[in-house]
Amino acid sequence: MHPISKLVIGFVVIGLLVYGFLAFDIGRSAEVTDYESCVAAGFPIMESYPEKCADGEGNTYTRIIGEPAIEDMISVAVPTSGATISSPVSVSGIARGNWYFEASFPVEIIDDRGNLLGIAPAQAEGEWMTTEFVPFKATISFSAPTTTTSGFVRFKKDNPSGLPEYDMHIDVPVMFRQAGGTATTTSAACRPTGCSSQICSDQDVASTCEYREAYACYKTAECKRQASGQCGWIQTTALAQCLSAAN
What we know:
Helices cover 17% and strands 31% of the residues. It contains three helices and 15 strands. The strands form four sheets. The chain has an eight-stranded mixed sheet, with no helix packed on it. The longest helix has 26 residues, at 3-28. The protein is elongated.
């Protein structure tokens, strides 16, 4: 090949390299303020979830993933809507791993007046550190309501932060099976139980330890066996007013 031709080719190659470098540098010099602009500027994406982009200057930008609809977070198999339940009740279903914390989340039994009747943790039946669905089961003992026959089972997303903006739950409407006739004879006395003594029962009931202002109302309430044979809080005006103010 003629020496001049080689020289021309060399200049062309050098020109292309310089052009490519300048184009790349111009792209990276664009203002980076978030994950999308970081990726658009050509910076590398880190292998993480959610993905992160590093701008080469010590800054990282995380991809913002919107919270999915609650219907895509948890699906309850048992109980079904409108089912009649009695204590203890077993519940089951599937929930995404980020619904749990430390492999569990709280399940509450609440009457249609907002009174907490029982609470217990649902346990993951598999590896919970995932965004996929994980089966869960729980058994909750609760005090049957004395002034109503309906309520719901509340499945709450575990929220270790305690911040209300991160609260999520799904309610399944249920009916409570009422005991017929007079009170059932039993040797066990009704007593406050649960982590915050917020449950009235003749059994020791395990509950998650979370603070609610309404729990303080039960400190002066009376826990007694009702006409239905079940243990329950005496629904006085003072208790009703306290619970209304706390909610």
